[in-house]
Amino acid sequence: MAQSFPEDVLEHVFSFLNHDRDRNAVSLVCKSWYDIERLSRRRIFIGNCYAVSPEIVIRRFPDVRAVELKGKPHFADFNLVPEGWGGYVYPWVVSMAGAYPWLEEIKLKRMVVTDENLELISKSFKNFTVLVLLSCEGFTTDGLAYIAANCRNLRELDLGESEVEDLSGHWLSHFPDNCTSLVSLNISCLGSEVSFSALERLVARCPNLKTLRLNRAVPLEKLPNLLCRAPQLVELGTGAYSAEIQSDIFSNLSEAFLGCKQLKGLSGFWDVVPAYLPAMYSVCSQITSLNLSYATAQNPDLVQFVSQCGNLQRLWVLDYIEDVGLEALAAACKDLQELRVFPSDPYDAEGNVTLTEQGLVAVSEGCPKLQSVLYFCRQMSNAALVAIARNRPNMIRFRLCIIEPRAPDYLTLEPLDAGFGAIVENCKELLRLSMSGLLTDRVFEYIGTHAKKLEMLSIAFAGDSDLGLHHVLSGCESLRKLEIRDCPFGDKALLANATKLETMRSLWMSSCSVSFGACKLLGQKMPRLNVEVINERGPPDSGPEDCPVEKLYVYRTIAGPRVDMPGFVWTMDERVSSRFSRATEGHGD
Amino acid sequence: MAHENDMDLKATELRLGLPGTSDRDILKSNNKRSSNEMDNSCSTAPKAQVVGWPPVRSYRKNVLQQQQKSSDSDMLGMYVKVSMDGAPYLRKIDIKVFKNYPDLLMAVENLFKCSMGVYSERDGYINGSEYAPTYEDKDGDWMLVGDVPWDMFVISCKRLRIMKGSEAKGLGRP
């Protein structure tokens, strides 16, 4: 076939394609397009670090400048993935250090990163500008010192909510005096105090600093020093928001905030002393994103503050906001798109706040743009869910956590099938759903029938039988990630829908009823899946074949079985049958 | 069950089960095993012991726990200096632990082993009061303790001084 355009013209055209999906589509058109695309791809997103190997990536894309990797499954956030499971960035950093000398950006989520990895990063990439470590672990503040010292043009250092071993705050002083490039700095997860004067000087010499998220150790009295040196800030995370009540502290703070004309996002607020909230009144009407989820302020201080922020688009808050606060929010914040309400006391069965389904219904009624919800509460009804669904057909993320597992509709004592059914039926663009409460197989029938755009589903303590899982796997056409815990789902649905699993990123099932035998079968039949059994109590073959495995993690991969598995993870592949086979079994081929 | 037909398992190659068992047996035995497991994990242990439930990230849990601890240990207290005329040492008390004036005054009386009498709006402290409690407010003025509502006092009090009666009389309301 004659080539219509010269390569460099095509490459120029492709340079306008930034989204992975577009680039992937383009690469499938013909061989020459595949080659032109792969040589010009600069950004790579790998949603599961074990789905592919560094060698395969580097071979296909030789000139990448930005890499984003995710490691552990989402349920690792809730301690369901044992320590030492994996997700090491090491092999990636080592390979990329050789292959991508011009790499600029590394973004990692739920991965294990060591100080040696950080040192290697800081010394291997001359143009390194962006390091984002979300929910990562394995490194100390010594590793950060390498980054600070060696990355001459560092623009972004975001430690997310990582678990960092905090040896000292001294690392920040390693930023050289001629470092003026910082645009974003997030150290909010660190415990120890950094040298305030070093921080102050750093902030003062970085004119492009737009995001500054401090850690708890930065005292409130000193916040004005930073704010007046960075009046161009767009996002601020305060340190501890508490001090003895003194009028000079208050007036300094108010004055400093008055100068922040660009400020749009606020977070931090540890140990909040409500008397100091009004110091921010001058910026409230500018604020579009507010994270008060660590602020233990209560009403009326809390609702009074939030109500000042009429242009709010995103609010994260503790359940201290209560129904009355959410009703005020619904009245005041008509641009609200995302609401997350976290539990102040997740382990208290009773709860001491008046936050019920009413608050969420009120927000769904009053905020026409509401599309993303994460809500922890202690009671729910089908009626409320139906109302929410009808109010907000534009909902795209809906995550509801009723604290008590299997809690029924508190009014009728029925399962919440009808309520969640209404959500999936009305919200046709729903991408993500997390459910809780008492749920039967019926809700899964609704989901399989209606949730055609759903990409991620989280299920806990729900369903009656394999039929539930079967409905989801056979009906949800767009499903990419499925995570299940403590549900009576077993072998039948899994095996009947084995090929579906190749169309998804991953499946997690823990404390369900999937037998070891089924896992083996799945692993043998589906070579492009890694079927990993996690059994901490002992090898899965120490009991009978029909014994359920503790945890199962299945994901598609072109890299073959993992080579870095700890002792409690077994991979089920063709070789497994010889390792685990017993004379008495008659399964398989 | 009628909907077993929907699963159409026989059309797939993948089946698990010993020869001779039917789907129904497997389905029932799956459910039975799972419901036992459910009972074991849920009926005995209190809910707080279910791992990873409610799904709150460990990072968030740790932060909230730290904050609860610090509020228990009075790090958010409102400590003010208390002096008494003629006493050699200053003391410090956390006025946030008190809910009203009588509690505060009783504590101060105990601290300095003095008696301040009863507060009266018109006459200040009378009946057995050689001393009167006063405080310096945010504006630097010395006021008689008790003149303003308690909540306002807590916010505006910078320090306390137990004055000798004769001086204190001048602070009464005009």
Automatic annotation (TrEMBL), chain A:
Pathway(s) it belongs to: Protein modification; protein ubiquitination
Gene Ontology biological process terms, A to Z: auxin-activated signaling pathway; pollen maturation; SCF-dependent proteasomal ubiquitin-dependent protein catabolic process
Keyword Chaperone carried by entry: no
Source taxon at top rank: Eukaryota
GO MF term set: auxin binding
Species this chain originates from: Olea europaea subsp. europaea
Tagged with keyword Lipid biosynthesis: no
GO cellular component, one term: SCF ubiquitin ligase complex
Membrane spanning stretches: none
SMART domains the record matches: FBOX, LRR_CC
PANTHER family according to UniProt: F-BOX/TPR REPEAT PROTEIN POF3, PROTEIN TRANSPORT INHIBITOR RESPONSE 1
The F-box domain, residue ranges: 5-46
Chief location category: nucleus
Short name of one Pfam family: Transp_inhibit
Intracellular or extracellular location(s): Nucleus
Name of the protein in its database record: TRANSPORT INHIBITOR RESPONSE 1-like
Protein keywords: Auxin signaling pathway, Developmental protein, Nucleus, Ubl conjugation pathway
Automatic annotation (TrEMBL), chain B:
Comp. bias intervals (Polar residues): 28-46
A cellular component term, taken from the record's GO annotations: nucleus
Keyword list, A-Z: Auxin signaling pathway, Nucleus, Repressor, Transcription, Transcription regulation
Statement: the UniProt record of this protein carries the keyword DNA damage: no
Region (Disordered): 1-47
Domain PB1: 77-165
InterPro entries registered for this protein in UniProt: AUX/IAA_dom (IPR033389), AUX_IAA (IPR003311), PB1-like (IPR053793)
Biased composition, class Basic and acidic residues, residue ranges: 1-13
Any GO BP annotation: auxin-activated signaling pathway
Subcellular location: Nucleus
Primary location class: nucleus
Family stated for the protein in its record: Belongs to the Aux/IAA family.
Self-association state and partner proteins as the record states: Homodimers and heterodimers.
Summary of the function given for this chain in its UniProt record: Aux/IAA proteins are short-lived transcriptional factors that function as repressors of early auxin response genes at low auxin concentrations.
Name the UniProt record assigns to this protein: Auxin-responsive protein
Provenance organism: Olea europaea subsp. europaea
